[in-house]
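Sequence only, no structure available. Ideas?
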Amino acid sequence: MTEHHAERRRFKRIAFDAQTELRQGTHRWPVKLVDLSLKGLLIEKPEPWLGDSTRPFNVDVKLSPEHDVVMEVELAHDDQGQLGFRCTHIGLESATHLRRLIELNLGDPDELNRELGALLEV
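Reply:
I predicted one. Tokens follow.
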């Protein structure tokens, strides 16, 4: 990651290993999740990659058999074998699960509140 990206990042990324599927139209890719944040996620680029960067994607991160984080995302960057996605829509239930996951991993409620405030500014 370049210094420019690090300076712009306002959301802590949580390294998390979970069954994850990326979808676009009829295409489905089981993918390796690298990390996720309140604003998006980073995955290992699947092969073959047939995604259309001009159209939205849906992602489903399985937290447990009963809980998923489902988001509509757009491709933000494609580099070094990884794809970064920015969340454009997330439902209330998924947002609640993601918030709790981030809260548990940050271990600092004040930091979580700062991130939520930054998210609402965007």
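The mean pLDDT is 83.
Hope that gets you unstuck.
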